[in-house]
Design goal:
The longest helix has 17 residues. This protein has 14 helices and eleven strands. 44% of the residues lie in helices and 16% in strands. It folds into two domains: 194 residues, Rossmann fold; 101 residues, Helicase, Ruva Protein, domain 3. The protein has 312 residues and is α/β, with parallel strands linked by helices. A hairpin with a 2-residue loop joins β6 and β7. The chain is globular and about 75 Å long. The strands form four sheets. A five-stranded parallel β-sheet has the order 2-5-8-1-9.
Length: 312
Amino acid sequence: MNSLMNAVVDEVGTILLGKEKQVKLAVTCLFARGHLLIEDLPGMGKTTLAQCLAKVLGLEYKRVQFTSDLLPADILGAAIYNRQTSEFKFMQGPIFTQVLLADEINRTTPKTQSALLEAMEERQVTIEGQTRPLPEPFFVIATQNPLTQAGTYPLPESQLDRFLMRISLGYPNRATEQKLFKGLDPRTRLQHVQPVTDLKKMTQIQALVDEVKATDQLLDYLQRLVDFTRFDESFSYGLSPRGALAWLRAAKAWALLEGREHLLPEDIQIVLPSVVGHRVRGVHTHSTDGKSERARSLVDHLLTSVDVLPVR
């Protein structure tokens, strides 16, 4: 099945050039049943990556442009009164889809942001006292602009924790940008992208992720990393059990993508920044902006301070 996962990576890579690692992390996130947050400056390809992922996976998707006047009902849906039948009929919102593209999620108010909390954690929404299940699978692929940009509302920790991974694309390299200058338009090529998998195959891969073996020694290494975030004085607070389990699941998905059925320390390390970076905060940090130098130094501090093998 790793060949199928790599086929997804390769197909997305034909649109988002020069970003192989970011694409692999994004694919890892989705096959690990996680939600993905893509953060970067406007015009860096965040929305293009989100749209391409949805099309390549062959799943139903809908896009919502998050703005300051967006209301929870615009996402979840609402009961509409029908005069002819004198009854209320529930009209589903765009959240009732397999992949929801939440574009510029931090440009809407906290009230609207919170409408996604139940959906992302429990794959269901409760509207007017009635709980409605969401389609399977259900992914949120969200983009957000840095908090330094005007008109943004920071995502609270509880919202950030619902995202399995947060990645950043960064500027393209010179060779890639030269291709763009010469007329290689990713949006035009996006129209011709074809699905390389389907729901049945995707479900099979997700089941294989759960079967990736992790030795007691590897689990001990992961536990010591998690404990370090909780007790080291550099961290304001540590990783939650949900965050720790998300880390393990992401590492297993990465291992499967690499063609292995067992976990290595490198798998835990390579997904660390994307899984942990937005879940921890330094003692003197007052922002959840994971792109800050302080956040990166916390991740580096964690990685270099905990040995793979316990010190005797």
